[in-house]
Amino acid sequence: MTSVSEAPTVTFDRLRYAGVFVLLFLFGTETFLISPLLPTIAESIAVSESAAAASVTAYVLVYAVFAPFLGLLSDRFGRRRALVAGTVLFVLSNAGAALSSDLTTLVLSRGLAGLAAAAAGPAIWAHIAETAPDAVRGRALGLGMALFSTGQVLGVPLGGLLAGAAGWRSAFWALTVGTAAALPLLLRQVPAQDGADAVGAAPGGSVKALLAGWGDPVLRRALLVNTVFSAANLGAFTFLGAVLVQRFDLSVEALGLVGVLVGAGSIAGSLLGGRLGDRARAAGRNNLPLLALWGVLLAVGIALTVRGPGLVVALAGVVVWFVASGGFVTDQQTLAGTVAPELRATSSAWLTSTMYAGTGLGAWAVGSFSDVGDGTLLVGAVLALVAALGGLLVSAGLRRN
Predict the structure, then answer these.
(1) What pLDDT is recorded for position 134?
(2) Same structural domain for residues 100 and 179?
(3) Do 58 and 19 sit in the same domain of this protein?
(4) How far, in Å, CA of 359 to CA of 243, rounded?
(5) Residue 185 and residue 233 in one domain
(6) Cβ 372 vs Cβ 232: under 8 Å
């Protein structure tokens, strides 16, 4: 067997994916942008902050419900159509948000944004997975995930600054213009015969094809592990601010800096996960239990954040937490793009849907505790270890394949 050092060097042409990478950055920015703007938006359209938060719910619910169906369409009819349709809808949705003068229009525009992301997101991951060389597939997906996280680290603060200088609507206009500018790149870089035509349409009728990923033993285990990991990861993250305020009485400004650590950890984890995965596959070890590794690291990160001695250790725990998060998501996307090529977009969409389902379950479980710190530690750390055990089962399934 050829060793890693003897393997031929495969270059990764990042510019080839400039269009989809720009779109991922904008998606990452838009997903997290509402949170810091919520008070300003609520005051502008004369509703309560809790009512304005329905715009966030609309985005998440629409994405979670429609992503598998739109992923199936991408698998059957090609990436280019799904990407172009999603990009155009994203332009319209952000323009609609910028023009919103009442809650109904804002919620509808955010729901349309969720539909746009549900159409384009799975198609993006599938496009990268099937066009990047095998030797750098993980690196390519990791860079895409890192750019999505960069939208949180850089895009959200920039959007906040723009909103502070020119009003909250200007942030959505900037997203509108940025997305429209990415469309010519997508048209040039994503070939017309992409996706379904290259690997064959997803098998069976619509319902059978939609659920086909759950019929594959490896994908089924991966999706179940994804649900549990997300309950631990993002379910606990829902209460991260409350935990840090309870422990250290941090200000709102300080919590904003914690958000930068969250994004930085995610970026580092995404890049590390892609690189480790590529090296493992180059060495003929595609069954390396990386998912289990990220589960254990997540448990350690949550424990340090909630019970670590002092603020510095707790913040180090936050970084470890989200390094694990970024690495896990990247490896899951790589697995979904490799195990069943004819189901790439559908599998990627199910990853997102199960992520949202797990997040909701985890947040509910943590919220059921009278002490938020105890709930975050018990639910987050315990479920992270359960996900690590599940990751070992996924690796065992890959070994048998």
Answers:
(1) 80
(2) yes
(3) yes
(4) 17
(5) no
(6) no
Alpha helices in 238-310 (DSSP H): 240-248, 252-282, 290-307
Within a domain: 324: yes
How far is it, in rounded angstroms, from Cα 332 to Cα 247?
33
173 and 286 assigned to the same domain = no
Which among 366, 398, 163 has a CA at the least distance from the CA of 286? 398
| CATH code for position 131 | 1.20.1250.20
> What token pair was written down for 216?
């594959």
Could you tell me the sign of the dihedral formed by the alpha carbons of 279, 281, 286, 291, in that order?
positive
> What tokens appear for 52 in the block?
């304005």
Cα–Cα distance, 288 to 388 (Å, whole number): 13
Q: What average pLDDT does range 212-225 have in this prediction? A: 84
Tokens 């990751």 correspond to 391
d(CA 303, CA 298): 9
- Would the pLDDT of 234 be above 90? no
Site of tokens 């090529």: 341
> Cα–Cα distance between 258 and 310 in angstroms, integer?
15
Confidence of residue 1 (pLDDT cuts 50, 70, 90): very low
User: Among all chains, which residue has been given the structure tokens 């659920």?
Assistant: 211
Using only the alpha carbons of the chain, give its radius of gyration.
20
How far apart are alpha carbons 282 and 7 in whole angstroms?
Answer: 8
Which of 10 and 54 is assigned the larger pLDDT?
54
Where is the domain boundary, 196, 222, 249? Answer: 196
Write out the two tokens for 256: 């904003």
Give the pair of three-digit tokens for residue 4. Answer: 């890693």
364 in the same domain as 215: yes
Please state, in angstroms and rounded to a whole number, the distance separating the CA atoms of residues 327 and 77: 30
HSE of 175 in the Cβ direction (CA atoms, 13 Å)? 37
Percent of all residues in the chain with a pLDDT value above 90, rounded to a whole number: 32
pLDDT at 159: 79
Please state the domain count of the chain: 2
Residues 191 and 213 occupy one common structural domain: no
pTM value? 0.77
Whether residue 4 lies inside any domain: the answer is no
Average pLDDT, the chain: 84
Same domain, 282 and 396: yes
pLDDT of residue 341: 73
| 3-class state of residue 76 by DSSP | helix
